[in-house]
Amino acid sequence: MKRFLALTALFASTAFATPSGTTVIANGTAIDPGTGKIIPNAAIIVQGDRITSIVENSTEIPKKGDSVIDAKGKFILPGYIDTHVHFFQSGDIYTRPDAVDLNTVRSYKDEHAWIEKNLPDVFARYLRCGITSVVDVGGPLWNFKVRKLANSTAKAPRVAIAGPLISSVSRTQLELNGDAPIVKIDSPEQGTQMVQKLEREKPDYIKIWYIVNADNPVEKFRPTVHAVIAEAHRLKLRVAVHATELEAARTSVEEGADLLVHSVTDKPVDDAFVKLLKDKGTILTPTLVVFERYGLTFANKLELTPEEKAWGNPEVIASLDVTKIPEEKRPDRLKKAMENPQPVLDSIQKTYDVALKNLKTLEDAGITIATGTDAGNIGTIHGSAIYREFQLMKQAGLTPMQILQCTTANAAKTFGGETGAKIGSLQPGYYADLVILKSNPVDDIKNASDIDSVMKNGVIYQADSILK
Ligand SMILES: [Zn+2]
Questions:
Q1: Cys-Cys with 308: which of 32, 100, 304, 372 at CB 3.0–4.6 Å?
Q2: 6: phi > 0 → left, psi -120 to 50 → alpha, else beta; which?
Q3: The whole model's pTM is what?
């Protein structure tokens, strides 16, 4: 018997102390993207909620009394991690009244009530898609209740949370009962106070929404960005920044941002920016799928992937057919896009021309890229949007193994904390959060959705049964 990963002393002792309750996933091919290691004919031993060892070509395993999952011909990976989602948004057409106001069709209050009621459904859809952890990078204070609920729900991903977005602009259309997802901050002092207020909720991230426009040039908000990051770091909190312009992104990283939550979409990244990310160890989440989804939905050109059609919430998907909205209730932005879709399509293409090239540049330079979708935004379907993200990452020139690494080991770094250190890899001591595939994703990334079963916290779910 050849041991690839030695048992640690700790787990060796628990292994002998509790001989029952052991599950062995036998005969499959284990793939650990973080190390690039592929172990044929592997036996993955799980006790309780943890992986205790991984062995190649074992003849002594499983032992009598072990529960065995035969994974012959299958491929076992760490569960996927989506590092950019928003639970306060459903992905349906009503979820961003600041973008298209359809309050006359469904009020935002009703939309939020629907979202709250459907949280267990959304959680289950993540598991169905092989996603066992997510980072919610911003929403109302209500977000912290979501994290609590996810933590006490078996069929749910692990959830890391940011609270309200700190910004130079506000979006009052999204405010319910005084709980706003986006808070306008007018001075560095206010920014510092906001961080102190959020710290009480034990956030996984402080989020800055760095919006640049004619009224808000990059330099104007910089002192607030500086104060927020300084205070957050003093309180040992990490900071995630939305900055899609090169200069805003550069400023954010210079000020110490730990995570950039989108691609730079206005310009090619330059050598100085790449070096800055590298020197500072900043992680970047590209969120490619979201860049097409608002526009395609409004222009009535949305074509969901088979995964989204199969595993997305049917009510959310049905709402995205904009032809069903009575003509007199269509806001201007929607009307215009429906009447004349070409400029919308051109703008999406222009964004991708820059963003995909930037992703390739950063990946080649060795920057830590973490997969994320921005799911919850209009047309970006919770869970299954990750498979469109994979297609776009592939289009950018990433290999299947690189995409898988971004979705496991790199994404785990993004998740952070004690949990982040125990997810995203097949190693002894890590949480038994796994996805078992029927075909090899290293051959073709499209196989990443060919899911046989999903293990979360040591509990195995047949993929087909999860949404029943
Ligand atoms: Zn977002």
A1: 304
A2: beta
A3: 0.94
